[in-house]
Amino acid sequence: MIKIYVDADACPVKNEIEKIATRHNIKTYLVCDGGIRPPLNSLIQLIIVNQGADAADDWIVEYIESADICITNDIPLAGRCLKKGALAIKFNGKPYTNDNIGMALATRKIMEGIREGGEITGGPAPFSKADRSKFLEGMEIIIRKAIKQKED
User: Fold this and answer.
1) Which CATH architecture best describes the domain 3-151?
2) What is the DSSP string of 42-107?
3) Element at 145 (helix H, strand E)
4) pLDDT tens across 49-98, in order?
5) Which one of 25, 70, 100, 106 is separated from 80 by 20 to 30 angstroms, measured CA to CA?
6) Which helix (H) or strand (E) holds 4?
């Protein structure tokens, strides 16, 4: 059975994830360092890790397995999950893949260097209704891929 792992601290699609988990009967872990209300849904488990850099990421990587799904906007976390054979998707529904993760990591590194140099760069666009809709669509696609991968 596939599982979903959510990098939940700044996740704007928790309600959508719960609906998807319920519809597909998938055990889901919301991993954070606190501040999230425990869900009432028995399929959703809240995991609170110690505060600290990458504590939630490390927990997810420790438990995620091949064909499981990680929901995150954290590019390095997505890369670590892909290395374990898991699938990964952004909050806006765009998947991370073995084909695009290298470019995403390189771009992140370049932008980090630019910011460290003092240049102000714009942040991400505000999360929209269209992003929610794309997330739901992307999740349906990635769940089908995960089920197929688990069967193979």
Assistant:
1) 3-Layer(aba) Sandwich (3.40)
2) TTEEEEEPPSSTTHHHHHHHHH--TT-EEE-S-HHHHHHHHHTT-EEE-TTSPEE-TTTHHHHHHH
3) helix 129-151
4) 998 879 999 999 999 999 999 999 999 999 999 999 999 999 999 999 98
5) 25
6) strand 3-7
